[in-house]
Design brief:
Blueprint: E1 10-14, H1 15-18, H2 31-36, E2 43-46, H3 52-65, E3 68-72, H4 74-78, H5 89-109, E4 114-117, H6 127-148, E5 153-156, H7 172-182, E6 190-194, H8 198-201, H9 205-212, E7 216-221, H10 250-262, E8 273-276, H11 286-303
Length: 304
């Protein structure tokens, strides 16, 4: 493939995964500067920052850098065990309120997109009702988001595994059905696919794209460990690429990039966000994981 991957996408990194100590909205946010100062990256994905002074400082730094920022409300939901498709309407409304409460932070940070995830999976007999509740929540959130900023609301698709995130959405075909319904009220609604999640979903990149491609507006890349309960990264924990126990290395990333390029997601005109979602564990350092992520992406891109 001629040219760099940066010509086709704004390469980013999910801050709250690599700096997990900030996932609760508090902590040392100096890692933001690491990403903003790195010329390899054109984007960063942030979540809530509870301290107003820290948030203002980050917003100013992002604006000065000229880089793109996207907001992930996943930590808002995950850390508080909130459920956007709960069959208990009080619980559902509590989840909606928490997400809506994070919208002003996303706007202050200058976010170009606002992402979240579905709630917990339910018994098969209840999935239809739960999906209806999810659509209801997404339409409500989309309406509130529109009041603050004209940016996409994005649903990230996850797994339904007991040792993973065990989320309602879930299969990409079902995500597409949700997107079709939500877009009737929220035209800028879209989906996020993540290479890290595809093995856990039991889908290949081609299968995921065939199911949900018309609605995909955001993409992540990373790794996962499956069916190894003794491994510290078992499930949806985002170990570095090419972990000996993991599922994704250069070949898998090559396949993923090829599908994204073939189907027009990777595009020189639009340059959408394509972010690493990786974390550290054991003796690994963030510097080493960032370097290894870049090497893996560059190697995969050369093979596309």
């Amino acid at each position: 493939m001629k040219g760099s991957i940066q010509e086709y996408a704004r390469i980013g990194i999910v801050h709250f995964m690599l700096w997990k100590d900030c996932i609760g909205g508090e902590g040392d946010f100096s890692g933001v500067r690491t990403v903003l100062d790195d010329p390899y990256f054109d984007a960063i994905e942030m979540s809530w920052v509870k301290d107003a002074a820290q948030r203002a400082e980050i917003a100013k730094a992002v604006e000065k850098s000229g880089k793109t920022i996207a907001f992930g409300a996943q930590p808002v939901l995950l850390t508080q065990k909130l459920d956007l498709n709960s069959l208990d309407d009080g619980e559902r409304k509590r989840a909606v309120a928490a997400v809506v409460g994070a919208i002003p932070q996303a706007v202050e940070l200058g976010a170009r997109g606002f992402a979240l995830l579905s709630g917990f999976d339910v018994a098969e007999a209840d999935r239809g009702r739960a999906t209806g509740k999810l659509v209801e929540s997404l339409v409500e959130i989309g309406g509130e988001l529109k009041k603050h900023a004209d940016i996409p609301l994005v649903l990230e698709t996850f797994d339904r595994l007991t040792y993973g995130k065990n989320r309602l959405i879930g299969p990409n075909a079902e995500a597409a059905a949700v997107a079709r319904e939500v877009r009737k009220s929220v035209p800028k609604f879209g989906l996020m696919i993540d290479l890290s999640h595809l093995p856990l979903q039991g889908e290949t990149p081609s299968q995921a794209w065939d199911a949900a491609g018309p609605y995909v507006v955001h993409a992540h890349m990373g790794n996962c460990v499956m069916g190894k309960p003794d491994h510290p990264m078992n499930g949806d924990e985002h170990p570095p690429f090419c972990d000996p126990a993991g599922e994704n290395c250069v070949d898998e990333l090559t396949e993923y990039l090829s599908v994204l390029l073939k189907n027009g997601y990777l595009d020189k005109t639009r340059r959408p966000i394509l972010s690493f979602e990786v974390c550290i564990y054991g003796d690994l350092t963030r510097e080493a994981v960032i370097a290894q992520s870049k090497e893996t992406l560059d190697a995969a891109w050369r093979n596309v």
